Amino acid sequence: MSILEINQYLSNFHSEKIWENNDDFNEIPKVNINHVSYSLFLETFLLKNKPCILTNVGSKWRSKQEWLIHSNPNFDFLKNNYGEIDVPITNCHDKYYNSQKKETRKLKHFIDYWTEYKNKGYPENMSCLYLKDWHFTRDFPSDDVYQIPHVFASDWLNEYYSQSCKQDDYRFVYMGPSGTWTPFHADVFTSYSWSVNICGRKKWKLFYPGQEEFLRDNLGNLVYDLDSKELKDENKYPNYNKVAKYLEIIQNPQEAIFVPSGWHHQVWNLEDTISINHNWINGFNIQQIWSSLCRTLSAVESEIADCKEMDGWADQCQLILNATFGLDFPKFYDFLEFIARRRITHCIEKKTASSEW
Length: 357
Fold this sequence. Notes:
Layout lengths: L2 H8 L19 E3 L5 H9 L5 E4 L6 H5 L1 E2 L2 E2 L1 H8 L3 E11 L2 E8 H13 L9 E6 L1 H4 L16 H6 L9 E6 L4 E5 L6 E8 L2 E6 L38 E6 L4 E4 L4 E6 L3 E8 L5 H18 L9 H13 L3 H28 L1
Parallel strand pairs: 1-2
Antiparallel strand pairs: 2-13, 3-4, 5-6, 5-7, 7-8, 8-15, 9-14, 10-13, 10-15, 11-12, 11-14
Helix pairs in contact: 4-5, 8-9
């Protein structure tokens, strides 16, 4: 199927925003996961695109039992069982464009650094290293160290990427000492995300969708660090004083945070912390993903509009879209087709089994 055919097919896909952000609230709701059904979670949080904290998550997970000792990271266990794997590391002291400088290390070497950094009292003259976006499940598919909470179970994204031919996923482990942090951002594809603290506490600042526009500099770039003194420079950030709606949250061990689509956020580790995180998409935010994809394509087309008469312009736009957003129209179409075919097949099989009975 050509780009033009895909574009025509997807043009019928409704692209209005789905979040309901008129329901103002000043504190993030906290709910015991054992007392919330999927239907209640759907009605209260998914449909309203509203964040929440779920308590009592992961107390029986193997990661809680094996990765910790006295509620702190069990460095010996982690080194002995996973030490030879290569993991992605960022340096929180080293800005690289609008992100943090990245490298790859053996986990055992990162643990050695972490031990030294902790024993020395987290000194400012040492690098502040954070293990982020480790595809643990991809690296150790048979190591069942956690279970997906039932309210997050409908996950088209990782269902799609779990195909053997894809060799990728959006399931991650984060590990870092006190003081590590993640810059201001929205999640990949403007997807949902959930994050469970195995140990340690995190501070989150979540901004209502649209508030991030007040956190752009005079060139249109999003702020890198919400703690930056530059934010108060009216010449560089002329709209910062208009920021009104954000939530500040402390996430404790065995708590899961649900971050809805399009909510920009920044996260700080207040203690030595290990967390498990998923990005996910399903029927309740697919519309938002499509809207974000279309907006990004429009921006790409505007940037290279002077080349529009050239052969292959539409294909080049899709190439840049994929590099910028992580998806293009053919991939999005393939994603939707995969999910639709699986659901149709399931319905047919269920109907056949029912008639045979």
